[in-house]
Here is the input.
Amino acid sequence: MQQSRVFGLPTCQLRAPRFFLPHSRGSSHGLSRIIRKAYSADFYTQMMEECYRLWVQLEHEAGNQLYRQTGLLLLAMKENPEFQTIQAILSRQGVEHQYLPSEELKQHFPNIRLARGEVGLLDKSGGVLYADKALRVLQDRVRQLGGKVHDGEKVIEIKPGLPVMVQTISRSYQAKSLVITAGPWTNRLLRPLGIQLPLQTLRINVCHWREKVPGCYGMSQGFPCFLALDLSGAPHHVYGLPAEGGPGLMKVCYHHGNAAEPEEGDCPPAFSDSQDVQILRRFVRDHLPGLEPAPAVLEHCMYTNTPDEHFVLDRHPKYDNIVIGAGFSGHGFKLSPVVGKILYELSMKLTPSYDLTPFRISRFPSLGKAHL
Here is the structure.
C-alpha cells in the first residue's frame, strides 16, 4: 500500500497486497523488460512518446541508468497483418524505423536463422528497461516526495464513501480518493464493491537460454530485443532480450501462459506448462541456433489479461472516488509512467491527458447493471 498527498489532498493507492517488497508474486519483478514504440494501436505508440521522456527524467533524478537502447526487431512473414499495421503506425507517428527484407536482415543479424519469406522491422528506439532497479528508484522517489510505502499489509476491507476507508491486517486508512492497482488480486478487492472485471490471470514461464558462445547474442555485440509474430507455429508472440553480463543467458519467452490463481505463482509448474516451453524450444531451434536447445533457468510471473489485452484505466461505475488500474496483459511496465499520470488525473477528477475510450470499463458489454 502506498499513501501520498497530492496538492494537500490525501490519496491512497492499493498495490502488491500482502507481500513485502521486493517480491516475485506479481508481474513487475525480474531484471528486465522490453521498451518499444512498435505497437499495433496508435494510442500506445502516442503514449510511449511521453513514457520515454518520463523514464529519462527519472534516470536523471536518480542518477542511475534505467534504460538501454538496443533497438526492437519485429520478425514476421511479410504478409502478416499485424506486422503491416505496426509498420504503418510507425510511419504515421514519425517513429524512426527500418524495414529489413530477408537478405538485408540476414546481413544485419547473421545469428538469426530465417525461414523463407520472413522479414524484419527495426524500431530503433526500442531497448531494455532494468525493471528491478526501476522499481527501487520509484519507491525511493515516493518516499523522497513525502509518500509512504506500507508493504506486507493484506487488505481486509474497503468501505466506499467520502472518505473512503481501507482496513488492512495492521491498521486502517482513510482518504478522499483511492486507486486500486492490485494486479492478479484486483477482482478479489472489487467483488465486495459490486463489480467484477473480465480479467484472466495467467502463469507465465520466464525462460533464460545459455549462449553456446558467450556474447553471440549480447548487447555488446549489438543484438537487439526482438518480438516474433506467429512464427514456428506459435499462436502467440515470442519475445527476447539480448544477453548481458557474464553468464551469457538470453531471455526468450512466450507471451502467453496457463490460467492460474494468484496464490499459485510460486507453485511447481503444472504439466501443461511444458507445452509453452516446447513452443519456445522449437523457436530457439529454428531461429536462434547459437543458444542451447533447453532453457538453463525457468522462472515465473503472473499476467492479468483483459479480453482485448488493453488496460482498464477508469473510475468505479458507482463510486467515482475509487479509481481502477488493471489488466495490463503483459505489456504494462514500459507504460507505467503515463499510466500513473492518468490514474492520478482520474483520482483528482482532472481532464485526462489521453483519450481513455480504449480503457473504459464500459467497453465490456457483459458488465451490465447486474454486476453493480
Observations:
- The chain has seven helices and 21 strands.
- Confidence is low (pLDDT under 50) at residues 2-10.
- The two ends are 25 Å apart (CA to CA).
